Amino acid sequence: MAQQTYTVTGMTCEHCVRSVTEEVGALSGVTDVAVDLPTGEVTVTSDQELGVDDVRAAVEEAGYKLTA
Amino acid sequence: MAQQTYTVTGMTCEHCVRSVTEEVGALSGVTDVAVDLPTGEVTVTSDQELGVDDVRAAVEEAGYKLTA
Fold first, then answer.
1. CA-based Rg of chain B, rounded to a whole angstrom?
2. A28 in contact with B, Cβ within 8 Å
3. Does residue B38 belong to the interface with chain A, where contact is any CB pair within 8 Å?
4. Closest Cα in chain B, distance from residue A6 (Å)
5. pLDDT per residue over B18-56, tens digit each?
6. Where would you find the membrane-spanning parts of this chain (chains A, B) (predicted)?
7. Which of A8, A9, B12, B25 has a Cα-to-Cα distance from B54 of 20 to 30 A?
């Protein structure tokens, strides 16, 4: 199991949190996504380590930006 | 035809705009809802004048507050 925390900018409300959770959660192998709205921290748990480009693409698909 | 502008607080993104538009748009007689996100102004067009309590209830159902 792998767990990685990213920082996402642009989320302003619970709808934004839901969008990011859904897109990142749809990545292959992801078992949990936890978003902290005030900080923008997105913690992703997955069966194996994810490629940051895949995570970035999912975040951008939701309409937000991955910064770290 | 009636048109009335209200001010709604708490909307922070386009998802919020969509939620308010959907809830207010579902009120009987409403034919158009236009939301300006930066100002929170919601302009509602309807067949007949709406009761402010009905509009307030729809806005609160969406998760926001009607202030004026």
1. 10
2. no
3. no
4. 21
5. 999 999 999 999 999 999 999 999 999 999 999 999 999
6. none
7. B12
